[in-house]
Design brief:
By secondary structure, this protein is of the alpha/beta class. Helix content is about 35%, strand content about 25%. The protein is built from eight helices and ten strands. The strands form two sheets. Strands 6-7-8-3-9-10 form a six-stranded mixed β-sheet. The protein has a four-stranded antiparallel β-sheet with strand order 2-1-4-5, with helices on one face. β7, α7 and β8 form a beta-alpha-beta unit.
Length: about 240
Amino acid sequence: MTADAQVGTVDERREHAGGAPPEPLVAIRNLSKYYLRGDQVIPVLVDIDLDVPEGDFVALMGPSGSGKSTLLNLIAGIDKPSSGEIRIAGVDITQLSDADLALWRSANVGFIFQFYNLMPVLSAFGNVELPLQLTSLSRRERRDRVETALALVGLSDRATHLPNELSGGQQQRVAIARALITDPTLIVADEPTGDLDRTTAGEILGLLERLNRELDKTIIMVTHDPKAAEKAHRVVHLEKGVLVH
C-alpha cells in the first residue's frame, strides 16, 4: 500500500467517525522569498503552497539552487519570508517578533544538520543537554532526559565521549538526540546523510524512520539522495523555487 493510500484510509476513518480531517501541522500559503541585489530582485521561492499533516515524513528534493534549504529554514523559523503565511500547529510564525520566534523555535523545532554542528569541547551528554540549559528543568530532570535520548539513538555507552572521539554516524546520532531532547513539534533535517558513507547513512535513515513510526514525529528532510528520499512517506520537488507536482 502506498503512503498516499494509507493517508486516505486514515482520513476516511475520521470522516466515518463523524470528524473532519484535522488541520495540517504545517500549512504554507502563497509563500515567497526573494533577495535584492542592487536594483535586481532575485527570486528564491515563488508562491509556495504546501500542507504537511502531523506524523508525516516529507522529503524535499530538487537541484542545487532550487530553494530546498531556504524553504526548510523558513519552516523552521530560522529565516523570514518576503510574503506569505506559515502556520505550524495553528501559529502563524511569520507574524512573530524575532524574540518570540526564537522562543517558539527552541520549544517546537528540532534541527539535524549535514555536518552535525556539535560543540567540540562538550561531551555527547553535554551536546544533547545544551538545548535544556535555558529551561526551568532541574539538573536531575535534564540528566534523565539526556540519558533517555542517548539510549534512544543507541549511544548510552558514548555519553562521555567528545565529538572527535566519535565516528561520523555516532556524531549524527548525537545530533538527532539533541534534536529530540525538547520533544519538538517538528524535526527538520538538512541533508542528514550527506556526509556519511552508504552503510552509515542507511542506519541514520532507519533511525529517522523509527522516530516517525514509533514516536509519531513529523519530519521534513532536504536531500539530494533518491535512496534517502525513498524512506519518506512522500517526496516534494522544487525547481527554480517553484513546487513541481
